[in-house]
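ESCALATION

Customer reports they have been waiting on this structure for their group meeting. Please prioritize. Original submission:
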Amino acid sequence: MNPVVEQAFFTYFFISLCILSIGVIASRNIIHSAFYLLIFLLHVAAVFLFLNAEFLMVIQIIVYVGGVLALFIFAIMVMNIKEELKHKRFVRFALAGVLIGAVFFSGVYLFVKDAKITEKNLPEVDVSLVGKLLYSYYLLPFEILSIVLLVALIGGIILAKKLPREDR
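Update from on-call: job pushed to the front of the queue and completed.
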């Protein structure tokens, strides 16, 4: 691909991902936030495609767009989010969230600023090798992750059944 066109695509994705991420956290309507998250995740999948990581693109779409976002929408529909926002339980932690985000992005910047990519060190992409590694060498972390996701699902169900404070 022409380097100028490639640079234009990455610039577009950088700007659009920044705008969409701000839309996810700044939108007052939770459904609009979920929609911004959907578009954000699809853009991330497109970035994976431009980086010649087709397997990650497919996994991004299947797992995050298809699974996690559907779970978010389900949780939004089950929980009474408007009641939670009325109590302003989450707003009081906004400054702490901004500070933690600033520290996180500063750490990422310090970690990445001196990184160099050499194409000689990149191995061949083989999906069957990833599958074999996932179900042999990384089986225990994979199973632990599935248990963590199951606990998060059960916690989400318990939170969804929780009544608002005024109804108690």
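Sent to customer with the following note: The longest helix spans residues 54-78.
Escalation resolved.
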